[in-house]
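Entry:
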Amino acid sequence: MTKQAKFPKDFLWGGATAANQCEGAYDVDGRGLANVDVVPIGEDRFPIIAGQKKMFDFKDGYFYPAKESIDFYHHYKEDIALFAEMGFKTYRMSIAWTRIFPKGDESQPNEAGLAFYEDVFKECRKYGIEPLVTITHFDCPMHLIKEYGGWRNRQLITFYENLCRVIFNRYKGLVTYWLTFNEINMILHAPFMGAGLYFEDGENQEQVKYQAAHHELVASALATKIAHEVDPNNKVGCMLAAGQYYPNTAHPVDYWAAMQSDRDNYFFIDVQARGYYPNYALKKFEHENLNIVMTQEDLALLKEHTVDFISFSYYSSRVASGDPKVNETTQGNIFASIKNPYLDSSEWGWQIDPLGLRITLNTIWDRYQKPLFIVENGLGAIDIPDAEGYVEDDYRIDYLREHIKAMNDAIIIDGVDLWGYTTWGCIDLVSAGTGEMKKRYGFIYVDRDNDGHGTLKRSKKKSFDWYKKVIASQGTDLG
């Protein structure tokens, strides 16, 4: 049995999902079509989410896992009861934009969609679970992509503002913690998934991505403003796909490459947390001839409405090299990175680095001095259930144990202000990167395979009772 210092009494333990990866029911109760619905599993998935291959609707010969996913839409009471049994203090989830505004540009919302999320939030509250809600988690109405070009179009700020006004008012008192955009830096790596961007031949893709990013940043500041006006108790955070870059060697060019790679990620959070574009970003625009259209009103919004806290996902650290000949890469969460010989890897090639979480926590805390929240962390693995659906997932327990220890060190020894921890995919769901079900993260096994076959029966894994014990002991019992 491993004992350690207690986490803060009000620490928010829980788990995380996303609407597009768990809800299913893609055409139920008036919901419209979203970008994530039309991304299939298979070899075309990455070119599509990267905006390089056009798929704006369903096509024969493909399987689209988000259509049904694990059908949280019809199982949410059962699932939330299981979360409560584990002792969750918070549940991070997202809203599907197209449930509220099926096309995205309507003036009036879809009541059935609003009612669904109200029921979900009330179900959480029934068990004393605090909802942590991502407004946009890789989710853009297809109508806004087809008619407006996605987030490249400034009009999406207005449509997003309308969404925010509706949900902040409707769910006042039910939701206090909000995130504006999931992994906002993913726009650079998976722009169709992150911002509904498909690139036409001859377009300056960097120009389009950074202009879309500016629109999302302004929309995030506007959401923060509205949230505080509607309810001063609201806490609004940004969200980063994090993971410290290490230099591949002690050579200065490698250190410089790592610094530049970190800046590419932190640029977005610099704006959301500090309220202005950093000089290195403005110089990048200048050197690369990127003419990013910004109004004085935009800059004022960014300055006056910074986020209350910073949330992030952490799965692994990364390695950067300034040597163009160094090209051995390892798989990552959309990110390609040089393989680190000192670390073990998951079945999907993601390198396991608990100390990297402590390093990342300290780096973000030192940079911004704002409260932090780890909203994704976990191990994707192939689970082999027995006849009852039980999985002996000691490998997952080992992974989480070491990361929780690192998190505890960052709080107790280093003085990082960390509000909470939600493991990714607390119930098995569809992978955002690969579209697979066999890449499982959950404490709860869901009987469904990569081809959509299965009963959707839920069953507890070994890690279910382990995490229940961790929460009950305030992180002191990790045995």
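Residues 153 and 212 are 7 Å apart (CA to CA).
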